[in-house]
Amino acid sequence: MPSIWFCRRLALAALVVTVVPAGLQAQERTLGTFSGRVDKEVRLTMRGGDVSSNTLSGADIRTRYRIASPLPQQEGTVRVAVTNGRGDVSVIQQPTAANGYTAVVRIFDRSSGADVYRVSTYWTPSTVQLGDRRGFPGRGRRADVPTLHWSGDVDGSVELRWRGNTVNPRGISGAAPRNISASVTGEMNPRQEGQVSVNVREGRGRVEVLQQPSAANRYTTIVRITDPARGYGHYSIDASRR
User: Is 0.70 surpassed by the pTM of this model?
Assistant: First the structure.
């Protein structure tokens, strides 16, 4: 029988494991931490200051979630950092206006028996405020940097080659990527050097920038996604160039 519980407030320390663009990283906040034993699959549903835990399969084992701050009612990205646990932990629903700013985290333990998990959750706003010409923070305009939004299922390793308003995925190992969606937003100057950083919205593996855009490589960015687990893993990333 699924168990649902709610808890509010309480704080805890954070562990950062994914790369977030510098301006957004400063605005990242800790939402809270899940801890407990998981036997198969548990999902966490977060909305505002409420968090519910639902055991979808396996034994119903007591868990808890300590809230550091409520999930804001605005567009943003929730990410997870796993400090203990052998299975897959991913964000399967990001908060948007369409779903009432509700995030869902999936914890899936593939092995037999239960394992102890400790998972921290974080939230980053979708946009960042830039300083004005005099350098005063919080009084500038909204950033409109070129950003590649990419999502898809990865089995093994794939490279994304981003140049201008086009991106070409190339399989390195494993099965071919599937269910791909890609778009580029922001003010793009295809012949301008910059520094690209990646925000991983969803994914269980490693995402890294292998090549920064420059005149020598015709302003081409290469992002590699490496999925270490068996089968396909779903990824959603934002690569921003500054």
Answer: no
